[in-house]
Design a protein that fits this description.
globular, 6-stranded parallel β-sheet, about 550 residues, 9-stranded mixed β-sheet, single chain
Length: about 550
């Protein structure tokens, strides 16, 4: 009975990445949606920005029959919305809102936020205005929908807002519709990411940093302020891992009420014979491109290693990966060819025509193309960090190199011009994935890797790495499916050597060892399915609803 009392009757969830595939939060929302939809059919409504007016959005299926009566009311309230379903498993209901009309009153809205919650928008720049106007519009949508449909029938209504971009809307709900329980989830603090990205030691001095002071020093005052004040004024403040929880406590001066770890659904992972077929095809494609680029004849015995994700050279550990590959190349104990891919989208200018022509010819080649370290052209090659480090290390895929490194600076969306395959359709072909992150609140890339039974390397500074260690009850090793390398602010060389040694160890595995490690990776991934992780969300809903009821009781009395 008590659980029922604090179970949501209706959930609103708002994010910049609803029907807008730009980062990891999209994966969080889109893979979790089916689990919520199965439990609360059509009582979960996602709210996102409407960037696609007059254009087709393949992720959004508009449905004019949904909420037709409310849409009329919303129109009268000057809310410009489109309603439909998200084209993902579960097909949840989505409201896309046009936030551009609110730019005309942004200063008034910022003034209200300061007066009510001390949100300082004075030093806002860049994407702050756009995100804030969307957030405000999302809050208005929730307010209107609630009063039209829910105020008399639902006691437990929850509004969950993701990242600083949705903070203004969460505060709007708190002020104008206080009977809705609010949850704010930060997936990475803006100031923590900025400290790490500016090459300042984040972890060694975390206890000594003052978030407000650092925000001023790094010109992050507006984003830090909305994030901090939202964390302090919602009913339940959450983040995605223990490591980011510590960051929130120190930099936002607010301890998280719950940790919402990121799960996934296994429906995108092929099964049985289809898995084997896709893995074989992926390896063939990776080797085909590599051989065409370098004029080599690498075969299926080659150990294929890759790193991927956002192009954050230090935060994602791309620098460490490249240094480890250089050290591996110089290690006389290596007796197997290693093909390493760096799959991070850069400022690319289209596929290399010479490589494209070789691939289309279907021929084999024994001489390399010029600059055989990259698959696509770059707008600013000389300023690129990956190519710069490869050239500096003289790791240029010479015939004598046992380790070959290839930079793939594009989104693997199936139409890049070289691979013409989606990321998952290539990931499945790896033997090992490496994600040596310095700053990684959670880490979807390693989770996706083990879901495809590809063992991986990550670090103790990633939320995923901390979780893997917790599951193991000790430091997770490659033989467990995930090698968690201890990393701190000052052990760069130790991390490089540890990754080099792990890849070397993997290169010496026989088939029995390899199969065992791949099986362990898949079993670990199963523990991170949403059916297991969704319980953390219900804990957050309970906390938010309890705190909302306490607020409302105190207000009445």
């Amino acid at each position: 009975m008590e659980n029922k009392m604090f179970t949501p009757d209706f959930i609103f969830e708002s994010s910049w990445e609803v029907c807008n595939k730009v980062g990891g939060i999209y994966t969080v929302l889109s893979t979790r949606a089916k689990t919520l939809q199965d439990a609360l059919t059509d009582k979960v409504v996602f709210i996102g920005p409407d960037f696609w007016q007059g254009k087709e959005n393949p992720l959004f299926m508009e449905d004019a029959s949904l909420f037709a009566d409310w849409r009329q009311k919303a129109c009268e309230e000057q809310l410009h919305v489109r309603v439909g379903r998200w084209n993902i498993p579960g097909c949840p209901i989505v409201v896309l809102v046009d936030f551009t009309p609110y730019f005309a009153i942004k200063n008034e809205l910022y003034g209200q936020a300061y007066a009510s919650f001390h949100v300082d928008s004075l030093h806002a720049y860049g994407d702050y205005d756009e995100a804030s106007m969307f957030s405000y519009a999302a809050g208005r949508v929730v307010e209107s929908y609630y009063h039209f449909y829910l105020s008399k029938s639902c006691e437990n209504v929850v509004y969950q807002a993701h990242e600083w971009m949705t903070g203004l809307g969460a505060l709007y709900i708190r002020r104008n519709v206080p009977q809705i329980a609010t949850i704010f989830t930060t997936h990475a603090t803006s100031i923590g990411r900025s400290i790490a990205g500016n090459n300042k030691p984040l972890y060694a001095y975390l206890n000594n940093y003052n978030g407000n002071q650092m925000a001023q020093e790094l010109n992050m005052e507006a984003k830090h302020s909305i994030e901090r004040q939202t964390a302090h004024n919602v009913d339940c403040f959450t983040t995605v891992s223990d490591v980011t929880g510590l960051e929130c406590e120190e930099l936002l001066d607010k301890k998280c009420d719950a940790i919402l770890m990121n799960g996934f659904e296994a429906d995108f992972v092929p099964k049985a014979a289809e898995f084997t077929k896709k893995r074989k095809a992926a390896r063939a494609k990776l080797l085909e491109v590599a051989n065409a680029l370098m004029g080599t004849s690498l075969d299926d015995k080659t150990l294929i290693v890759a790193t991927s994700g956002r192009y954050e050279f230090k935060n994602k550990g791309i620098d460490v990966f490249l240094a480890a590959m250089r050290r591996l190349n110089d290690d006389p104990a290596l007796n197997r060819d290693v093909l390493a891919f760096v799959e991070v989208p850069g400022w690319q200018a289209g596929p290399r025509q010479d490589l494209k022509e070789r691939l289309e010819s279907g021929m084999t080649f024994c001489t390399p193309l010029d600059n055989p370290i990259i698959t696509h052209n770059l707008h600013q090659y000389d300023g690129d960090s990956v190519t710069g480090m490869l050239n500096w290390m003289n790791l240029r895929n010479q015939p004598e190199n046992r380790v070959k490194v290839i930079f793939v600076p594009c989104y693997l969306d199936g139409k890049d011009g070289i691979f013409n395959a989606h990321y998952y359709d290539l990931l499945i072909g790896n033997d090992l994935s490496v994600y040596p992150s310095y700053y990684e609140p959670w880490g979807y890339t390693p989770l996706e890797s083990i879901a495809f039974k590809v063992p991986c390397v990550t670090t103790s500074l990633s939320g995923f790495g901390m979780w893997a260690n917790k599951v193991k009850g000790a430091q997770s090793r490659l033989e467990d499916g995930v090698e968690v390398v201890e990393r701190n602010d000052f052990n760069y060389n130790d991390v490089c050597d540890a990754i080099k040694d792990t890849v070397l160890r993997m290169s010496n595995f026989n088939k029995k060892d390899t199969d065992a490690v791949r099986k362990k990776a898949g079993l670990l991934a199963d523990k991170a399915l949403w059916k297991n992780f969704i319980t953390y969300y219900y804990d957050a809903y309970r906390i938010a609803i309890e705190n909302m009821r306490t607020r409302m009781y105190l207000k009445k009395n």
